[in-house]
Every structure is written in C-alpha cells, then in structure tokens.
Design brief:
seven-stranded mixed β-sheet, seven-stranded parallel β-sheet, 22 strands, binds adenosine-5'-diphosphate, binds magnesium ion
Length: about 700
C-alpha cells in the first residue's frame, strides 16, 4: 500500500506560504511542491558556531556573529528619516547595530544592559563597520548556545525577501517540509552502488544538507546528492541513446563497399588525398564507419579545434554515402563558408566522377530550379549550401548523409529540418569548432554521440600571440609591411556589435581609411569585408584575398568561421577586449594554416576590465582550444557558451558539470553499466531504481536539452 505522497503537495499548503508567495516561489525559484522545496539546496553556509570579537569585524558583506552587551539604543536623525542605533560592546571594542525600520518593535524587544548574540552582514557606514538589521538573541544562559550552529543560506530573490521569504525564512520553511515528509524519503540508489562509492543514505544526506551538525557533514551530503543528480541525469541520457539505437533504424552503409579498391572512399584516401590522415582523423573515421555500418541511425557530433581537419573527415564520410548509392548534403551557416567548403571540396574531388553543387540564397532562380530538379533525380551527389537547403523545393532522391557545420549557428529544430522528412532517416554528422570539454559535451548534447579530433595536422608551427596596446600600432604596421614584402598576407579585424553598431561601423571605416593611407596603392592592395555587403560582393573580396591579390583584408567577424587562406599569416584584432574568448580563438584560427610561422596580435584599448585581461592573457599563453574552453567556462559558465541557458530552466540543482567532471564520469559509467547488464531492471538489487523512476517520471524533464 502506498502512502499519500505528501512530497507532491503544492507548496501553497505549507504553513506560512499561501497562494501569493507560492506564485512568486514558482516564478523565481521554480518551486511548486514540497519536493521542490526540499531540493532547494543552500547556496552556502555560515558557521555560527564561531563568535567574532568586535574588533575583528571588518570584511564588508560578510556574515558575522558577535556577542556583547547592549550599551545604548538611540535614534539618530538624518535629513529624510531617522534610524535606530544600538551600540554593542565586548572586551575588544564596540560595534554599531542599525535599524532603519520596525523601530517600535526593536525597542520593545531589546534592553540596554543585557547581553546579546547579534548576527548579520557587515556593511560600512561613515567608514565604520556596522551590522544593519541583525538577528538578535538574548543570552539567558548556557542553553542559548543552541543558536551556535551552522546556518544554511538559501538562494532567494528580491521579491521573495520583500514577502518575508528571505534566506532565513526559507530555511524555516524547508525545515517544516522536512518534518512532514522525512518518512517518505526513500533510498533511490542501489545499495551496492552506494557502498562501493561510500555514499551516505538519501534521507541522511537531505538532513545533513539542510541542517548540518558539522562542516564535514556538508561535504558528505553534497557528495551523495551530487552523485544522485548526475546519475539520474546520465541515466536519462544513456536510456535515450539506447532507445535510439534500438528504435531508430538507420541506413546501412556496407563496410565492404567503403573499403573496396575502386570505391570512391578507398581511392580518394589512397590516391587523391594530398596528405596522410592524422591518427585522430583515422580514429574518428573508424567511429563514424562503425555507426554507419551498424544499422542504427547516426547522430554524431564531431568536435575539433580550428584547423584540426574536420572538412576532410566530412568529405570522406560523404564519399562513403555515395559509394553506397546515396546522396550527401553539407550545410554551413554563412554564404562565405558554404562557398569556401564548396570550393575546397570541389578541388579535392577534382578528377573523380562526382557531381557537387552549391546552393545558397545567392544562387540565381533559374539555376536553383535546375538544381532542385537534379537533386531530386539523383544526378547530383553532393550539395553544399546554406539555409537555402531547407527551403521548399529541395527534395533529395536518396539522401544518406547530412553534414552540418558550426552547429551553434543553427537551432536544433532548424538542423532537424534538413533530414527529418526522409525515410529512412539520413545519418547526421554535426561539426563544431567550439571545443567543449568532452564530458560536458556528452552532457549537453545528450542525444548525440561525440567524436573528438584532438590532434593537429603535423608540421604546424604554433601561432605566436601577443597582446599589445594601441601605442604599439606603428610597430605592428611596420611588421605587417615586412611580412608583405616576404609575400605574406594579413587580416585586420574590427569589432562590430549590435548595441553600438553605428559607432562600430564608423570605427571600421576610419580604420580602413587609415590602413589605406599607410599601405597605399599601387604597392599595396587592401580590401574591406563586412556584414552590410551583399553576398556577391563579399565573395568577390574573399576570392581576391584567397588568390593573393589583396595584401590586407580589413574585416569584421564575418571571416570568423572556416575561411581558409594558408598564405595569410598575420591576424591583428583591434579592440580585442571586446571579443569573447572563443571568438578570438576562432579568429586566430584563420592563420597558422600553412607551413609559415603565423602571428596573432591582440590590440587592446586603454581601459580593460580584469576579466578581459584574463581572457587576453589566456590566449597569449595557449593555442589549445580545449584549454581555452575551460577558461571560458570558468569565466562565463556553460549556458552562455552553448546557448542552453534559459531562465527558470535549471539543469542541475547541486552538481556543477565542470567542477564535478570526475563524479559526472563516474555517474555515466555507473548508469551505462547498469543499463547494459540489466536493461529491464529485473534484478532485485535494482528495484530501488524501478520504484524511484516510476515515482519521478513527471519530474524528469532534463534530457531534453539537445
Ligand atoms: P577545420 O577543422 O578547422 O575545418 P580544415 O578541415 O579546414 O580544418 O583543415 C585545415 C587545413 O588543414 C586544411 O588546409 C586541410 O587541407 C589541412 N589538413 C587537414 N587534415 C590534414 C592532415 N592530416 N595533414 C595535413 N594537412 C591537413
Ligand atoms: Mg572548417
């Protein structure tokens, strides 16, 4: 028999909450039931077992507990209003306590001459530390020491504080819930898992997190609750993956056809490829082929730093599709990038009887009609393009593979529109140059399998990066002049951001004029590239630069992704402090693509925030995109980077996907082991999971991130 689940009681029925507060709790903290409140974890703790001598009260904003005799309690008058000041005294000195409101009550409660514990947050007034609105406890005897405990501080909001649901009242509410539901809290991890990982029981952990007796208990509780959270998160992902493998039938690309001499794939690798594949490229291809031959649908994320050679991997995968009688499509986020992919692929495929076409918004209508026709009849093998590919009219005869480059520019739904309409479902390969630590990417792209190219093609000289100030610009121009004399080319990039677009464009124009006057024709040729130009104009400029006809390309971030001109060896970024870290890394990736030594100059303005300084320094210190991604994650948090941050949508309550990577990995292994050994959870030792999963089904919204 099941008890009435008090855990799912709406929070408004908790004593002291009611409908009005419940509404704000739902909105601000996502709390609607008793269960939710119980899973509201303290942000931090204050050790109120300590008493700070009054003289040592200093750090602004810090919570302190002090003890002393109330020496006086008086009004002080300001121009607008008056406030109440109590002076507390101990052996070491005095400290003013201040009240701006509720004077009558305070005066009734406090008595001059008595001894009190005061607890509050230090704030400076007239250069002196004070405690505004402290919590006061009269010391009546040794039993007062029961107040000397560890106090959890819960996240609250401005609105909730105004409704008298600040951190302290939230703690009381949590404790009220705890008293009512503690018996209902069942274990949800198998015993043997818990024992082998030395995790405390669930009920015990919840008690410890909300009301720790020692600081150690907090750590013990956190370990358990984090693991639990990560485990069920990973469980969900693993289950989704398993389901996909079982239910979604994929086209089978036969390995024999791929490997046979005479096949496009085989011949291309053996005869056409102008270089040897790196070990990482070969490993990734093996992972992909495994998928393609398996009979289940491939949905794979291919991660690799800029310049790591993703394009070739994509091309070889497309050849595998063609060898099996299918067509392939590659979608890129911008006109320039699509065009460049098209050119690169065409060049590499030269001499092979494969028809490849480009389809973008700029394709003339008549040509489009022709392409639509030939795509539908299967005469075209590979189509490269932009959004135009997901417009009406594009209908493949036999689409076997969709490659999507730079996925962050496309929404999830948009991506899906490329392949959704086809049965059987074409395999999907998503390429991204945004290096996300592997564990995190597995977390955030739950439904995608992940392959990583973690090795650069050989012979690359690491790019030398220097952070310089505007005062050094003359030397920079001189350096560029010298390199042009040696036959090289340079990019100079200006920031354009939406908020200050007008001003930014003016800076770009002025900068361009200055560079033109510093590098005058006919000795030098310069050109400009920006987002307000028409696609055809942009292409023409890019083309001239790629052919070496332009020495200096003054540009905005439109060149950020993918563009490949190996002879360009200098990247100068003006006002580099205004760019994000990954953006700068992408920009830098435009150079260092050939055998020559390349340089990146990050030119910063006179006033730069500490965070921007950290960013620039990190770039100067390393070329490793994964390292930088970690720095970026620390500075900005995961949501900002992946675009998954949404208000009110919390992925984790207590675990931190970056700090807790080790635990995340452990959780993943545990979940996958259980799912592979006992997929239907038949074993008695897994009954706790069955019960919990059933009970929590309604609460598990997470795995829908990707
Ligand atoms: P990205 O991963 O940034 O898309 P690309 O695929 O554009 O990188 O490759 C960058 C450059 O490196 C290209 O010029 C490409 O031809 C070259 N390249 C790719 N793989 C190798 C390799 N194994 N050996 C040498 N050069 C390679
Ligand atoms: Mg690329």
């Amino acid at each position: 028999m099941r008890k009435a689940p008090r855990l799912s009681t709406p929070i408004e029925y908790l004593k002291g909450i009611g409908p009005r507060r419940a509404e704000v709790l739902a909105k601000d903290l996502n709390i609607t039931t008793f269960r939710d409140l119980l899973l509201l974890f303290p942000r931090r703790y204050i050790d109120r077992r300590q008493i700070t001598p009054l003289r040592q009260v200093q750090a602004e904003g810090e919570y302190v507990q002090v003890r002393g005799r109330l020496q006086s309690l008086q009004y002080q008058r300001g121009r607008q209003r008056s406030w109440l000041v109590g002076l507390l005294e101990d052996k070491t000195g005095t400290l003013p306590l201040v009240w701006f409101q509720g004077h009558a009550q305070i005066r009734k409660m406090l008595q001059v001459g008595q001894e009190y514990l005061a607890f509050g947050r230090v704030s400076y007034y007239r250069r002196r530390p004070t405690l505004p609105h402290p919590e006061m406890t009269l010391i009546t005897g040794p039993e007062t020491t029961e107040h000397l405990r560890i106090v959890p501080i819960y996240p609250s909001s401005e609105k909730l504080r105004k409704m008298r649901l600040g951190p302290r009242q939230l703690h009381q509410a949590v404790m009220r819930v705890w008293e009512q539901v503690r018996d209902e809290i069942d274990e949800n991890l198998p015993d043997y898992v818990r024992r082998s990982l030395r995790l405390v029981g669930r009920r015990e952990a919840l008690r410890m997190i909300h009301q720790p007796a020692t600081m150690e208990e907090i750590d013990i509780a956190k370990q358990r609750l984090k693991f639990e959270e990560l485990f069920f998160f990973q469980w969900q992902l693993a289950a989704t993956r398993t389901q996909r493998r079982q239910q979604r039938e994929g086209i089978i690309f036969s390995k024999e056809k791929i490997n046979a001499p005479g096949s496009f794939t085989h011949d291309f690798i053996k005869r056409h490829l102008p270089f040897e594949l790196t070990g990482a490229q070969r490993r990734v291809l093996r992972e992909i082929w495994q998928d393609l031959a398996s009979g289940t649908w491939m949905n794979r994320l291919l991660q690799g730093d800029v310049g790591s050679g993703k394009t070739v991997v994509a091309l070889i995968t497309m050849l595998a599709a063609i060898d099996n009688g299918y067509q392939a499509v590659m979608m890129a986020p911008t006109e320039i990038l699509a065009t460049q992919h098209f050119q690169t692929l065409s060049r590499m495929l030269f001499g092979l009887p494969i028809r490849i076409e480009l389809l973008t918004g700029a394709t003339p209508a008549r040509k489009k009609q022709e392409l639509y026709r030939d795509i539908e009849s299967g005469r075209i093998h590979i189509v490269v393009g932009t959004h135009a590919l997901i417009q009406e009219g594009v209908r493949f005869q036999r689409l076997g593979l969709a490659v999507i480059d730079e996925q962050h520019r496309f929404g999830v739904a948009q991506r899906a529109r490329l392949w959704q309409q086809y049965t059987p479902r074409p395999h999907v390969l998503v390429m991204t140059a945004t290096p996300i630590p592997r564990t995190l990417s597995m977390t955030l792209y739950g439904d995608l399998d992940v392959s990583v190219i973690d090795e650069m093609p050989p012979g690359r000289k690491p790019i030398r990066t220097h952070v310089i100030t505007e005062r050094h610009l003359p030397q920079l121009w001189e350096f560029i002049r010298r390199k042009i004399a040696e036959g090289r080319q340079a990019y100079v990039v200006y920031p354009i951001i939406e908020e200050s677009e007008k001003l930014d464009y003016r800076n770009l124009m002025e900068g361009y004029e200055r560079i033109q006057s510093l590098f005058p024709e006919p000795d030098y040729r310069t050109a400009m590239l920006h987002g307000r130009m028409r696609p055809a104009e942009k292409d023409a400029v890019m083309e001239r630069f790629a052919r070496g006809e332009v020495h200096i390309l003054v540009s905005t971030t439109v060149i950020e992704v993918g563009v490949d001109v190996p002879n360009a060896t200098i990247m100068a970024v003006i006002n580099a402090e205004r760019f994000g870290l990954s953006q700068l890394h992408q920009l830098r990736g435009r150079v260092g693509r050939g055998d020559e030594q390349s340089y990146c100059f990050l030119v910063r303005g006179p006033k730069v925030s500490a965070e921007a300084r950290t960013r620039l320094r990190a770039l100067a210190e390393t070329n490793d995109g994964f390292r930088l991604a970690e720095v970026d994650l620390k500075l900005r948090g995961p949501g900002e980077i992946t675009g998954t941050r949404q208000s009110g949508n919390i992925l984790f309550r207590i675990a931190d996907p970056i700090e807790d990577v080790r635990l995340m990995e452990l959780a993943r292994q545990t979940a996958e082991t259980i799912l592979s050994e006992d997929p239907d959870l038949q074993h008695p030792r897994h009954q706790v999971l069955v019960r919990y999963l059933e009970q929590e089904r309604a609460n598990m919204g997470w795995a829908q991130v990707s």
